[in-house]
Write a structure and sequence with these properties.
By secondary structure, the chain is mostly beta strands. The protein has no helices and four strands. A hairpin with a 5-residue loop joins β2 and β3. The mean pLDDT is 80.
């Protein structure tokens, strides 16, 4: 998981966003990203015991 958060405070400034609404002198922006693996490799095969001849 990754996250980002930023808090900006500006004195004496006012801007307009994409919807025509005016913003105050402070703003908080952020995002969160979850990374989900799409493929997991199969488990490794168990080690084979060596063949030993007796007798």
């Amino acid at each position: 998981m990754q996250a980002y958060l930023a808090r900006d405070v500006v004195t004496g400034a006012q801007s307009t966003n994409a919807w025509g609404l005016s913003r105050d002198n402070d703003s908080t922006d952020g995002w969160v990203r979850f990374i989900i693996p799409l493929h997991t490799p199969p488990a490794a095969a168990p080690a084979v015991a060596p063949l030993v001849r007796t007798g």
